[in-house]
Design a protein that fits this description.
single chain; alpha/beta; Isopropylmalate Dehydrogenase; 3 domains; 10-stranded mixed β-sheet; two-stranded antiparallel ribbon; binds NADP nicotinamide-adenine-dinucleotide phosphate; binds magnesium ion
Length: 405
């Protein structure tokens, strides 16, 4: 069989622990036999980040900007415990995802992979709900303080021009607690653009919700910028594709989401997205079935799994045990990146290959062959065969080869 050809490489970011092991298996079994794979390879494994003083992360992000598509393996974000585990670390390197997100000015979209045999807790959800969380500012870059005596807090902005703006926050008659938050027009606009772009790419409606009835100025600014971007840049394309941009108050959105059938993108401010993404992920089933894609305002995309490096399984693997780690979210990161590369380069065979990877994976699961983490989640009466990661990938490969023959 002739291999599917690629024209432009995609950026490949390798990672850590169990997901690094799965990464190599997925390439070897599912991709390399069928595709003449072209990647620019960056090793974001912790020790290589350390050797390069984290320059490799920056290089990988810049390469993504240049090539437009990336696929990333889960990586360790070092904490104190990891510093003890890896004594050679010269610094507690920052989260690679944070570094990449900042360079790409991107928004992360998280979507569950949905199966017939695993029903969401919310029984009317038929299609995935994708959450887009704004990842800059508000409470996450706030300053806080506690005060002990009666008094007044003021909010002052000092412009570079020398002009000042001051507001009284509140006068209190006793101990109090305070918080100062901000966001930037630039970040909100980049968020809006990424959301509209991704909705067009996915051909799905976009919902956006804030609390602008109470936070008239702050949340009102988010609402205004989204509306402006929609009217000026995206409305024509939305109408052509029959898509809807729908703004509603967050209280109303929460009620509607629960009653909905799913199948749309829900854009949320930083805190709302933090909370709602955990709720939606749990209601759909498992973290091992959540994909994530980082989208820049210009349509650059970086695909990955939402879960981490699955450390507990890695230590079993090091002892020589076969683990039943679920590779689905990582497979879908690869298929997403290959499909995007195919779309951008006008390579329908590559797009079809990505789709075939996904349908072969889903058919394997629907046949009852799955990793252990999913066995407890299936509908009563559904017969399953629990397999290890390698057996699971072999089953998918069999189905994939048939589809491509
Ligand atoms: P984790 O790797 O997501 O794993 C937490 C637990 O969830 C696992 O122990 C496992 O449960 C289950 N799980 C997650 N993915 C699974 C899969 N594919 N198949 C089967 N079970 C799966 O989170 P963590 O243990 O908190 O973090 C480990 C490392 O990952 C940390 O160093 C963190 O910095 C990093 N991390 C990276 C990213 C990223 O790169 N995007 C994201 C999050 C965390 P059982 O043990 O019960 O089987
Ligand atoms: Mg959270």
């Amino acid at each position: 069989m002739e291999k599917i050809t690629m024209t432009t490489p995609l950026v490949e970011m390798d990672g850590d622990e169990m997901t690094r092991v799965l990464w190599a298996m997925i390439k070897e079994k599912l991709i390399l036999p069928f595709v003449d794979l072209k990647t620019e390879y960056y090793d974001l494994g912790l020790l290589h980040r350390n050797e390069t003083k984290d320059q490799v992360t920056i290089d990988a992000a810049n390469a993504t900007k240049r090539l437009g598509v990336a696929v990333k393996c889960a990586t360790i974000t070092p904490n104190r415990q990891r510093m003890e585990e890896y004594p050679e670390l010269t610094e507690m390197w920052k989260s690679p995802n944070g570094t990449i997100r900042a360079i790409l000015d991107g928004t992360a979209f998280r979507a569950p992979i949905v199966l017939d045999c695993i029903k969401p807790v919310v029984k009317n959800w038929e299609a995935p709900i994708t959450i887009a969380r704004h990842a800059y500012g508000d409470m996450y870059k706030a300053v806080d303080m506690v005060t002990e005596e009666p008094g007044t807090a003021v909010l002052t902005f000092k412009g570079e021009s020398g002009a000042e703006k001051t507001l009284t926050v509140q006068t209190v008659d006793g101990p109090a607690v305070w918080q100062g938050q901000h966001n930037t027009e630039k970040s909100i606009r980049a968020f809006a653009k990424s959301c509209f772009q991704y909705a067009i790419n996915q051909k799905q409606d976009l919902w956006f919700s804030t609390k602008d009835t109470i936070s008239k100025v702050y949340d009102g600014e988010f609402k205004r910028i989204f509306e402006e971007e929609y009217e000026n840049t995206y409305k024509v394309e939305f109408e052509k594709l029959g898509l809807t941009y729908f703004y509603t108050l967050i209280d109303d959105a929460v009620a509607r989401v629960i009653r909905s059938k799913g199948g749309f993108i829900w854009a949320l401010k930083n805190y709302d997205g933090d909370v709602m993404s955990d709720m939606v992920a749990t209601a759909f089933g498992s973290l091992a079935m959540m994909t994530s894609v980082l989208v820049s305002p210009d349509g650059t995309m970086e695909f990955e799994a939402s879960h981490g490096t699955v450390t507990r399984h890695y230590y079993k693997y090091l002892k020589g045990e076969k683990t039943s780690t679920n590779p689905i979210a990582t497979i879908f990161a690869w298929s997403g990146a290959l499909k995007r590369r195919g779309e951008l380069d006008g390579l329908p065979d590559l797009v079809k290959f990505g789709e075939a990877m996904e349908s072969a994976s889903l058919e394997t699961l629907e046949s009852g062959v799955m990793t252990k983490d999913l066995v407890g989640l299936v509908e009563p009466g559904f017969r399953t065969t629990a397999v290890n990661s390698e057996e699971f990938l072999d089953e998918i490969t069999k189905r994939l080869a048939k589809k491509l023959a």
